[in-house]
Write a structure and sequence with these properties.
- 41% of the residues lie in helices and 15% in strands.
- The chain has 355 residues and is an alpha/beta fold.
- The protein has two domains: 239 residues, Aspartate Aminotransferase, domain 2 (3-Layer(aba) Sandwich), CATH 3.40.640.10; 92 residues, Alpha-Beta Complex (Aspartate Aminotransferase, domain 1), CATH 3.90.1150.10.
- The strands form two sheets. A seven-stranded mixed β-sheet has the order 1-7-6-5-4-2-3, sandwiched between helices.
- β5, α8 and β6 form a beta-alpha-beta unit.
- α2 packs parallel to α10, α8 packs across α11 and α11 runs parallel beside α13.
- 49% of the residues are buried.
- The mean pLDDT is 96.
Length: 355
């Protein structure tokens, strides 16, 4: 490996944060009760309630797909509809898990250029469903990503408008928070203001992309909604017997704001990367509000960067001015030197690669 890190493919490629490894070592002593009846899991509940400034129900799981799919299984019946953005992870990257674990609920994808749904988009499809009665799936929930799949972030007023409209239509609101930390860091508000105070009912809280080994959690801000989640988690094979090892990872992330410090760092590097690329005439396609930068590049430039060992994904989006769209992701463990190296490589190629 070169002196600079060259993988901008994902924040899933990162090592485990030292604080998380230390927490795992700390609890890896002696025997405790299993299946969540342990001091670390109780500590997590108390810490999460303090972090979000409310009494809540929190259930750890090991993957984001499990968090999303099992949360939606509680909110939507088998004959229900879940409205989401067309690029939402639940719609494009979870292999039908939401449909499977809900027992058949249908994802209805809505489009917008920036990855964000708006309040006005719900009225027509919900009205159509009501009109069709038993011939259409029953409107049940809205699922939004924060930050979105395009790296944009819902502002609190946008979120409140959308959740108010959803609740007015009788829909629950689920938030896929795989990068919730990055969104909160960008907004500069409290976790409560970015979630339940803005109308979110259930949050899939992500930690794996932000320093954990494998740890996500489903947070129910309305405890009554969690009525059968534990049974669904068990039936799905996602209840760890040694749950202390999941819980302690989340505790380590929440303690002393490690999750937000990591997110702020990743966000700052993304902003620096965007600025550096812009100086080379490569302007981000969307505002860089979290830790993802989307740009269009000539194919020659893409190939040349890959030949130098840089890793990133070509994004499944229409070309822009004939150029493929690529996604560049920064992470908590990256350094300024990593950003400088990529920008320098782009600069060295720019004069040889026609726009």
């Amino acid at each position: 490996m070169s002196q600079s890190r060259r993988s901008f493919a994902s924040d899933n490629v990162t090592p485990v944060a030292p604080e998380v490894l230390a927490a795992l070592a700390r609890v890896n002593v002696g025997t405790v009760h299993s299946y969540g009846d342990d001091p670390e899991s109780r500590r997590l509940t108390a810490l999460a309630s303090a972090t979000f400034e409310t009494e809540l129900v929190i259930h750890p799981v090991a993957t984001g797909t499990a968090a999303n799919a099992l949360a939606l299984a509680v909110l939507a019946p088998p004959f229900g509809a879940v409205y989401c953005h067309e690029t939402a992870h639940i719609n494009t990257d979870e292999c039908g898990a939401p449909e499977f674990f809900t027992g058949g609920a249908k994802l209805l994808a809505l489009a917008s250029p920036d990855g964000k749904l708006s309040a006005g988009q719900l009225a027509a499809p919900v009205a159509h469903a009501r009109e069709m009665g038993v011939h259409h799936v029953l409107p049940a929930a809205v699922s939004i990503s924060q930050a979105t799949e395009w790296g944009t972030v819902y502002q609190p007023d946008e979120l409140k408008s959308l959740t108010a409209a959803a609740h007015a239509h009788g829909l629950h609101v689920h938030m896929d928070g795989a990068r919730f930390a990055n969104a909160v860091a960008y907004l500069g508000c409290s976790p409560a203001e970015a979630s339940w105070k803005s109308g979110v009912d259930v949050l899939s809280f992500g930690a794996t992309k932000n320093g954990a080994l494998a740890a996500e959690a489903v947070l129910f801000f309305k405890p009554g909604l969690a009525r059968d989640f534990e049974m669904r988690r068990k039936r799905a094979g996602h209840l760890w017997s040694k749950l202390r090892y999941l819980s302690t990872q989340l505790v380590a992330c929440l303690e002393q704001d490690l999750w937000l410090r990591h997110a702020r760092h990743a966000n700052a590097l993304a902003a620096r990367l965007a600025q550096g690329l812009a100086r080379q005439g490569i302007t981000p396609l969307h505002p860089v509000e979290a830790n993802e930068v989307f740009v269009a590049m000539p194919m020659q430039q893409i190939a040349a960067l890959r030949a130098q060992g840089f890793e990133f994904y070509e994004w499944p989006a229409p070309p822009v001015a004939g150029q493929p769209v690529v996604r560049l992701v920064t992470a908590y463990d990256m350094t300024v030197a990593d950003i400088v190296a990529l920008v320098a490589a782009v600069a060295a190629l720019s004069w040889r690669c026609p726009a």
